[in-house]
Write a structure and sequence with these properties.
about 290 residues; mainly alpha; two-stranded parallel sheet; 11 helices; disordered C terminus; PIR Superfamily Protein; Plasmodium_Vir
Length: about 290
């Protein structure tokens, strides 16, 4: 099942569980509360939805990828229900693990999702949230637009965030984050040029490497701390997938082209762009 479709399935399942007027009367969720949930959010229904969703992941399939992606999307879903402040990421992670403990201790979860959930940390979820923000901004901009659009409607409004995050990833040698920003750029520029039919370089995002302040850098492999491989999959859970499916409808060729544009770079750590002539980075790998 394509990841975009999985995302839709997860979202619809969780929202359906939360909004179901019939409760399952789970004793483990009776009296459950969390001070960091948004005002008006029903804490019991959040608890119930999470418990039932985790059970769904076990019962629905033995596909480890489907389960893994489901656990990651569940974090983002919880994040959208939390009070927004400087501690939101941390508070969401605490809530997630608290509910996961309830699932294991009260519903015979057998800690089956440990390998998926325990690898989440404040670094990975911080990047998830940042990428979600930029994709959401893109989603809102494109919503309802039909090609061809006027010049004024060709400016997506994501340039500032893209610039900020690109400087951040290059400065921190965060290869996974850079890779996902490159994926974002390719999708953004593809939509601008091929879907909305906007002509002009001024509407396109520049390569991530163009934000590098150092002309030539050698990075010993021994000094590189590669983040968990959770990142490439985490970053995929954004509003962009469902939106692009709505935009192009049944035109599978466009969807396949967009996915093909980015699929080859998901698990690479080399900072580079196959569509640019920039060669600022010479990465020396030290296998010792």
């Amino acid at each position: 099942m394509p990841l975009e479709i999985q995302t839709i399935v997860y979202k619809e399942k969780l929202n359906s569980l939360e909004n179901d007027l019939k409760t399952k009367n789970l004793n483990s969720c009776q009296g459950f509360n969390n001070q960091y949930l948004n005002t008006g959010v029903n804490a019991y229904k959040i608890c119930e939805a999470v418990i039932l969703f985790l059970g769904h992941l076990i019962q629905e399939t033995t596909d480890t990828i489907y389960r893994d992606n489901g656990c990651k999307y569940l974090f983002y879903w919880l994040y959208t229900h939390m009070i927004s402040d400087e501690q939101t990421n941390k508070n969401t992670l605490k809530l997630y693990k608290e509910l996961y403990t309830i699932f294991n201790e009260k519903h015979s979860g057998s800690y089956i999702f440990d390998n998926y959930i325990n690898v989440m940390n404040e670094h990975t979820i911080e990047k998830l949230v940042k990428l979600t923000n930029i994709y959401d901004k893109l989603d809102k901009f494109y919503e309802g637009k039909k090609p061809p659009v006027s010049k004024g409607d060709c400016i997506s409004g994501v340039a500032d965030l893209y610039t900020k995050y690109s400087y951040e990833c290059m400065k921190g040698y965060d290869y996974d984050f850079c890779d996902e920003l490159k994926n974002f750029r390719k999708k953004h520029n593809f939509i601008i040029q091929q879907v909305l039919l906007c002509a002009g370089e001024e509407y396109l995002l520049p390569p991530v490497e163009s934000f590098n302040a150092v002309s030539k850098t050698i990075i010993p492999f021994s000094l590189i701390s590669i983040p968990s491989l959770i990142l490439p999959i985490l970053y995929k859970f954004t509003a962009f997938g469902p939106w692009i499916r709505r935009l192009i409808g049944k035109n599978k060729n466009i969807l396949e082209n967009i996915n093909e544009e980015t699929s080859h770079s998901l698990n690479t750590y080399e900072i580079g762009d196959d569509n640019s002539n920039i060669r600022d980075y010479n990465i020396a790998y030290n296998s010792s």
